[in-house]
User: Which sequence fits this backbone?
């Protein structure tokens, strides 16, 4: 196998765990490019078909909630058929959805492609995949690994949003669909050729480990049963519900509100779509830094305390930004500050889940927690669009999101404290 030969060639120079991390990062990057597309497509779809914001937001909210709802079952499916097959299957559905969307001209076709198919296919980039890879391949530096994988959300936004905006300007919304289809088609062979199932599959220990530990054989069982057994165990704990509520608020304030509606909000304030996309790209740059730094800190400090600061500072920024005049200076400060906080909650939430529920069960349990994240995102994607349609302004959506984040900063401190973990060398 190619990855086995590559692992042998890399022996003594670089641990194959980092190559695996790069492959998964690359795959998640393409998924993020698809998920970020609706932000630049709202206005072109309005102009092309006359659909209002709430209709388009409804399709976006469907794919957000499906990405979360399918996450636990896809993570369960990984235990049944393996990581590689599950990821390739998701990417194939994602590619089919973007390809078929080039032919849509009715709202139901928007819901079928950008709602249903993209929602299911985007599961390839869900936090459960990232968590399974981080826990399977890393004993030491698992927090950093999770931070780097989570930062794919930022990097995808950074890379794709300006490109997608250019495609919209020159080729219309269909150019976005075609461009994303090509990008995903390029990723699938990379995953097939270079992603092993586990370190043991190529005769290596996990990073930081001393012995090769085989993973359990594929069960051939029912992924729904695997997911629901984990849910049954976790749901008896108040910590699980606190993590669901706080991470749901995270989704409410990020991909639901900012990722979906910031460009339209900028347009309401006289800022062009290209400039609005550039603001999101700047958020992506600093989010890449923030997520990686968050993963590094999770290996050293309490994720509970980190989450308190992440949610509190995010809430303040969302409440303040609508009253700053929306000028270039205030938006620049917001994009830097908010960007550092954008996906920093992901590694910290996963680290806290590992701490409370253990490394074995954490990937599936965090998938259920991520489902709550996507429910929050769907509520904001649809709700903010409805608020804009009814009131003509996004003001109340931003204030509500900011206040919810401030509440999350208090709730996360209620998650059960565990014994202090040793600091890694």
Assistant:
């Amino acid at each position: 196998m190619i990855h086995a030969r590559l692992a042998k060639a890399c022996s003594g120079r670089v641990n194959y765990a980092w190559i695996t991390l790069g492959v998964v990062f690359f795959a998640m990057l393409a998924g993020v490019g698809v998920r970020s597309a609706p932000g630049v497509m709202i206005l072109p779809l309005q102009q092309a078909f006359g659909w209002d914001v709430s209709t388009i937001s409804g399709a976006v909210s469907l794919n957000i909630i499906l990405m979360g709802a399918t996450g636990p079952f896809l993570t369960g499916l990984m235990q049944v058929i393996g990581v590689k097959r599950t990821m390739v299957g998701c990417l194939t559905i994602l590619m089919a959805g973007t390809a078929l969307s080039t032919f849509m001209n009715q709202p139901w076709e928007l819901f079928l492609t950008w709602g249903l198919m993209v929602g299911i296919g985007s599961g390839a980039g869900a936090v459960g995949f990232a968590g399974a890879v981080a826990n399977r391949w890393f004993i030491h530096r698992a927090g950093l690994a999770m931070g780097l994988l989570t930062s794919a959300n930022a990097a995808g936004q950074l890379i794709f949003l300006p490109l997608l905006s250019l495609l919209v300007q020159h080729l219309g919304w269909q150019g976005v669909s075609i461009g994303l289809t090509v990008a995903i088609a390029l990723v699938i062979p990379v995953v097939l050729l270079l992603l092993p199932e586990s370190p043991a599959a190529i005769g290596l220990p996990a990073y930081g480990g001393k012995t090769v530990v085989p993973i359990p054989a594929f069960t051939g069982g029912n992924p729904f049963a695997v997911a629901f057994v984990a849910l049954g165990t976790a749901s008896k704990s108040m910590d699980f519900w606190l993590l669901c509520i706080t991470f749901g608020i995270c989704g409410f304030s990020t991909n639901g509100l900012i990722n979906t509606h910031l460009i339209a909000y900028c347009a309401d304030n006289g800022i062009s779509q290209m400039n609005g996309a550039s603001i999101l790209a700047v958020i992506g740059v600093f989010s890449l830094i923030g997520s990686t730094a968050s993963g590094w800190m999770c290996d050293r400090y309490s994720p509970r305390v980190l989450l308190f600061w992440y949610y509190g500072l995010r809430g303040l920024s969302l409440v303040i930004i609508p009253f700053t005049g929306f000028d270039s200076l205030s938006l620049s400060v917001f994009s830097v500050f908010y960007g550092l906080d954008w996906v920093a909650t992901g590694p910290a939430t996963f680290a806290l889940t590992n701490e409370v529920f253990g490394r074995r069960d954490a990937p599936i349990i965090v998938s259920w927690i991520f489902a709550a994240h996507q429910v929050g995102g769907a509520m904001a994607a649809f709700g903010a669009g409805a608020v804009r349609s009814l009131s003509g302004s996004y003001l109340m959506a931003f204030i509500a999101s900011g206040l919810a984040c401030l509440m999350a900063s208090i709730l996360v401190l209620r998650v059960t404290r565990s014994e202090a973990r040793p600091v890694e060398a």
About this structure: The chain has a mean pLDDT of 84. The domain at 2-204+221-414 is CATH 1.20.1250.20 (Growth Hormone; Chain: A;).
